[in-house]
Amino acid sequence: MLRQAESMERTPDTEQSDDIDDYGRRRPEIFSSFAKELGLCFAIMSSQVMAEYFISGFNVIVPTLTKDLSIPIAESIWPASAFALTAGSSLLIFGRLADIYGGYVVFIGGLVWSFIWSLVAGFSQNRLMLIFARALQGFGPAAFLSSGVMILGSSYRPGPRKNLVFSIYGGCAPVGFFSGIFFSGLSAQYLNWRWYFWIGTILTGVSLLLGLFFIQSDFHARQKANSMAEVKMDWAGGVFLFSGLILVVFAVNDGAHAPQNWGTSYIIVCFIVGIFVLGVTVYTEGWYAEQPLLPSSLFKVPQMKALITALFFSYGVLGTWLLYTTFYTSSIMGVRPMQLVAWFLPFAIGGLVLSAFGGLILHKAPGKVFLAISGAAWVLAPLLLAIAPPGASYWAFIFPAMICGTIGIDITYNVANVFITTKLAEREQGLAGAVCNSILFLGVSFFLGFADLTAQQTEAYGLRKSYQAVFWYAVCCAAVALVLILTFVNVEAARTEERADDQLESGSIRES
Predict the structure, then answer these.
(1) Which of 69, 90, 122, 280 could form a disulfide with 142 if both were Cys (CB 3.0 to 4.6 A apart)?
(2) Could you state, in order of their start, the residue ranges of all structural domains in the chain?
(3) Each residue's pLDDT tens digit, 429-456
(4) pTM for the full model?
(5) Where are the beta strands (DSSP E) in 158-278?
């Protein structure tokens, strides 16, 4: 009788809710076995490691590389920022290409491209060749990061399993960062700086082989879907957006080192023209383009605009903190490359721990709580170095800063990725991946320019004070992000729910 009463009490809505919850926990049907699911995840996550590898490790080999290639100190920022600049400026283009041709084609193509130009960078003979190779190398991560998030986002229904996968994916960022630091330190101290690129080439080749073996091609399925939806490439918007971002970020990054700083004519021209081109981009995307790269529906998602703005500031803090922590520990504290590797070890281990537990707790509390925790961590990470006295110990200042840094990046990246990929339809998962990563790369490139300007304007006070001024600048940026999160962002818990596509079909939401 009890079982009969329970069965009578079960309404269709309850049964549907149970079904959705079950879908969020079990292995997706596209994987015939756990081994294939594991292989796909490992292929995509290894590509995330490689993207971070080529960002972080380069900072360690800069002193050796600039001497070998006779690169002036004023121009040493360009080999570092060219990679992030081209990647961030082209992510939306590759995201749309992934939506048109499928994630597999763009993912594999991006790894092949990265493999080629990583190899070329190792053979650089002068400053121009290195900058050229680094700039072209950046298109690789732009392709495989946007398509990688697309593949993961479209493979998993929102729920605990997706939370776990994206937590591990986010945990690959500090692991990749540490890998870059480790192999660059090894190359700088015991081998040659060129080996940093060649080791990266080998590791990229491993990711490529994994992708070819475990990821199924979705080209024909995507073409069939697009024949009905008629998804098109917005080339005009892509060209305007890419050009405008390049000009603005170039002016911001080079302004501190130009002959008359920001008063230099070409800096002023590039900045004004870049702003104008971005204005044209807004017009074409909003009122002219048939299928804009940034559709208005993206910004109609509740919390999206505030979240993107907060992420932009947070990722700007990430880039500034990582680069200038490396400079501070090397130049002020006299840390050798391999000792620097050991000092950054908690950053990587913390990422692994958070990725292991993140997927188990993201659905337990509102996303705003996790974002507030990560926002507070971003304030503390540069603050500890800003107030560090001369002769500061590792355990009192650097170690807790590393813990705060990994809390900041891992939680921020995980919550943002899960939220954005869940709120966009399956046909827009390429856009979701592009948005997630373009905010990261553009935030790093943009805010590094002002960090460099801060260092240049305070260099008269000495190198240590100059670096600490940059850390105070990062604290201010982190505080802005935290205020935005506490005031305007209200992300709910990442529980099992229907995808945007499913909600549209069931009529629970309406397309704007």
Answers:
(1) 90
(2) 32-234+290-506, 235-289
(3) 667 767 777 888 888 888 888 888 888 8
(4) 0.79
(5) none
